[in-house]
Amino acid sequence: MSFLLTVLGVLLLLLSLAGIAVGFFMALDRRMREPGIFFALWWLPAVAAAGGILMRDPVTFSIGALCFVVAGVALAVEHRGSRRPARGRKRDSENAGKPTLFDRAKRRFSGWMKAWEYRKVS
């Protein structure tokens, strides 16, 4: 039984790490950036569930599995909501020059990193 749990835990861990890698690979494409990040984040609780199996800790496995299910529901709702045309949204031509939420966050993070490097050097 112990060997079987170890094999199951390692397989789940490898599967979840592969899911995270696929999500980050999807995020490299500009059109698939947000779905790719959501997909990678969806698989993070599966790593916790696999760790719970490997450590033989039922609480860690239960919380990881519950978070995985909740993240899957959130991913499905987000995917379903992005397919519907929104009546109140601006057209793409109106949003063409505006940075996306991801671009603004990336710019803010790079500003923090530059300030941190400057303080580290000073």
Nutshell version of this structure?
With 122 residues, the chain is mainly α.
Polypeptide structure, described:
Helix content is 79%, strand content 0%. The chain is mainly α and 122 residues long. The protein has one domain (2-84, 99-121).
Please mark out the parts with pLDDT under 50 across 5 or more consecutive residues, or reply none.
none
Oligomer: single chain
Averaged pLDDT: 80
What Rg, in angstroms, do the CA atoms define?
Answer: 19 Å
User: Could you say which structural class the secondary elements and strand pairing correspond to?
Assistant: mainly alpha
Largest sheet: none
Helical fraction: over 70%
* % residues in beta strands: under 5%
By DSSP (H or I, 4+ residues per run), the number of helices equals 4
Distance between the termini: 57 Å
